[in-house]
Design a protein that fits this description.
635 residues, alpha+beta, ibrinogen binding protein from staphylococcus aureus fold, Helicase, Ruva Protein, domain 3, 4 domains, six-stranded antiparallel beta sheet, five-stranded antiparallel beta sheet, globular, coiled coil, Fibronectin-binding domain-containing protein, NFACT_RNA-bd
Length: 635
């Protein structure tokens, strides 16, 4: 049944079947309202328009009208518009009885598939003709599959008996060590209520062992339920949920279509898609601070509760956690973490199955013990528990601080004296890419092959550090002194200003070397192109460095546009935007950022400082390739 938490596989089958009855359809505008909710206008024959609302992880159905669209389209909606708008819907289907359905859209370039996941956190994933992921709404890496660009789209592991013939179905029941209702609920993805309905229709006791059930009667009841859902639906809402068939509770309201029943059952629009914020009275400064303090306290309480649950879960599953630690400690002595991860994915051992994900850099794994906990494999069970106790202490201290601040009240705001602003004087390195690390070290990067040559030949010195993304094409990065942020900020800078960004990747490997390892002199028979270098000897690699930069307006001590890793930019200004690889060209992104900054700093400052604050200055920090603005910050 469809309940407030979401739809089941049977409900998805009913919705998809009805939607197929409206074909042919064409894709109109696509909207994104928040991080989980999408809307698609579907154009039919004769000018008929249908509105399809998707709340990933929960529900999807036709509605009478979509929520009001955001003033500024969000990034994933723009991506889908670019690839799908105007395309003809070639087919709509469901993967077995999983809570996953798809829409195939034909364009001149081929047929693309939009996959919608309605389980767990949910997702929307666009695939190319070969089933390779072009871009998901959310990037996820699981034990058995990766939902990231460039990977083949794989379904979650799990049984599905919707396509079984009677013989295979009987074999599945015979092999089960559960009772009948649990076998149907889990093994056939029916869920408890629909599994009980199948048992009732088959005239068998739901609590008997599945292996002793009348397989023929149960199979007939199971197939009969699917036929009724597809060919003879009778949509109703009862006290317990929204159903495509009757016989599952007292009917509160009947409907002609299941999509109409779902729309009635899910009447609320997500808060983020309304204009409620505009209707609320403006809060005073004191009220805003009070609200922030209350929110922070709730956040700390939630983190304390989760850490306490983690401690309890680790002790409850002590033998399993100990086995994970012992096994992985032993394996790590002779294998890399990448090899260990592959073995874990293919293993049927309970300890391996419990491992959800691997964190090679921390020698840690996430383990499912009722909740997901992080276990560092080179530490004892007790030491891992102590980590969570430290978190509890930290967040309790923060909560106490927030409570004390609430008791003190909000101090009166002092009027800030008007400050005189000065433009930053041009320096020799401003023609390169540049930023200062959080701890104050200057980092330089070449904008092209000519600047790469110049940086190495003219400006790289003995105590500097050479950094480069491990891809063809990218900035030569020179670190002018020691820094504690070589593997985070500097590596991010090198990865982001490389062709990895242009290719739409979200992570890249980066290597670090000494100046004496870098040479322009090739071996016999080798050729080194302009802007390229030979690095000899052992390099230090930083793997899977996330791409992402920030561009900001620095007002103090001098006014200028700055850019680089988000942490480094945030250390020098509160006025910034964050970028990720996306869909808009560099010039368009620079213009959008300019409009954001002008609004943040105000027209007066912007006009006075236009020599430093302009589109050209912003564009100098925009990475090569297409980008999306993913965050705006204003102090």
């Amino acid at each position: 049944m469809a309940n407030k938490q979401g739809m089941s596989g049977i409900d998805v089958r009913a919705m998809v079947t009805e939607l197929c009855g409206h074909l042919p359809l064409w894709i109109g505008k696509i909207y994104q309202y928040d991080t989980k909710t999408l809307g698609i206008r579907l154009n039919g024959e004769g000018g008929v328009k249908r509105q399809f609302l998707i709340e990933t992880g929960r529900r999807a159905h036709l509605v009478a009208s979509l929520p009001e669209s955001p003033k500024t389209p969000l990034g994933y909606a723009m991506f889908l518009r670019k690839h799908l708008e105007g395309g003809r819907v070639r087919g709509i289907g469901q993967y077995g009885l999983q809570r996953i359905f798809y829409i195939d859209i034909g364009k001149k370039t081929g047929v693309l598939r939009l996959v919608i996941e309605l389980f767990d956190e949910g997702n929307a994933v666009l695939l190319d003709e070969g089933g390779v992921i072009l871009k998901p709404l959310w990037h996820h890496r699981f034990k058995d599959r990766a939902v990231v660009p460039g990977e083949a789209y794989l379904l979650p592991e799990g049984a599905d008996c919707s396509e079984m013939d009677e013989g295979a179905f009987a074999g599945m029941l015979a092999a089960s060590n559960r009772d009948l209702v649990r076998t149907l609920a889990v093994g056939c993805l029916l869920g408890g209520t629909y599994a009980e309905l199948v048992c009732s229709r088959a005239g068998v006791d739901k609590d008997i062992p599945a292996s002793s059930a009348d397989a023929g009667a149960v199979y007939a009841a199971f197939q009969g339920l699917i036929r009724d859902v597809e060919a003879h639906p009778a949509p109703v809402v009862t006290e317990s949920g929204c159903w495509p068939v009757r016989g599952l509770g007292t009917v509160q309201q009947a409907f002609d279509t299941y999509n109409a029943a779902l729309e009635s059952f899910y009447p609320e629009v997500p808060a983020s898609v309304t204009k409620a914020e505009e209707k609320r009275p403006k809060l005073s400064r004191e009220e805003v601070i009070r609200l922030q303090q209350e929110t922070a306290i709730k956040k700390f309480e939630g983190k304390i509760a989760r850490a306490e649950k983690a401690v309890e879960a680790i002790y409850t599953n002590y033998p399993l956690v100990q086995e994970v630690i012992t096994t992985l400690q032993r394996a790590s002595r002779s294998m890399s973490w990448q090899e260990i991860e592959k073995i874990l994915k293919s293993s049927d051992l309970p300890a391996a199955k419990a491992v959800v994900s691997v964190h090679p850099a921390d020698a840690a794994v996430d383990v499912d013990v009722g909740i997901q906990v992080t276990i560092h494999v080179h530490e004892s069970v007790e030491a891992n528990v102590e980590r969570y106790y430290d978190q509890i202490k930290k967040f309790r201290k923060k909560k106490e601080g927030a409570l004390a601040a609430m008791e003190r009240g909000v101090p009166k705001q002092k009027e800030k004296p008007k400050e005189t602003l000065h433009l930053l004087k041009k320096k020799w390195f401003h023609r390169f890419r540049w930023f200062y690390t959080t701890d104050g070290t200057l980092v330089l990067g070449g904008r092209d092959a000519s600047q790469n040559e110049e940086l190495v030949k003219r400006y790289m010195e003995g105590k500097d550090t050479f950094v480069h993304a491990d891809v063809h094409g990218g900035s030569v990065v020179i670190v002018k002194g020691p820094t504690e942020h070589l593997e985070d900020e500097v590596a991010c800078f090198a990865a982001s200003y490389s062709n990895a960004w242009k290719a739409g990747h979200f992570a890249a490997d980066v290597y670090i070397a000494r100046p004496d390892q870098v040479s322009k002199t090739p071996e016999s028979g080798e050729y080194v192109s302009r802007g390229a270098f030979i690095v000899r000897g052992e390099r230090h690699y930083v793997r899977d460095v996330p791409l992402g930069v920030a561009i900001g307006v620095q007002l103090k001590p001098d006014v200028t546009v700055i850019g680089g890793p988000t942490a480094a930019v945030r250390a020098r200004t509160d006025h910034l935007v964050e970028l990720m690889p996306g869909t808009f060209g560099p010039n368009d992104v620079a213009k959008k950022i300019g409009r954001v900054f002008r609004e943040q700093v105000g027209d007066e400052i912007w006009k006075k400082m236009k020599a430093a604050l302009n589109t050209e200055a912003i564009a100098a920090f925009v990475p090569p390739g297409e980008s999306d603005i993913v965050g705006e910050h204003e102090g």
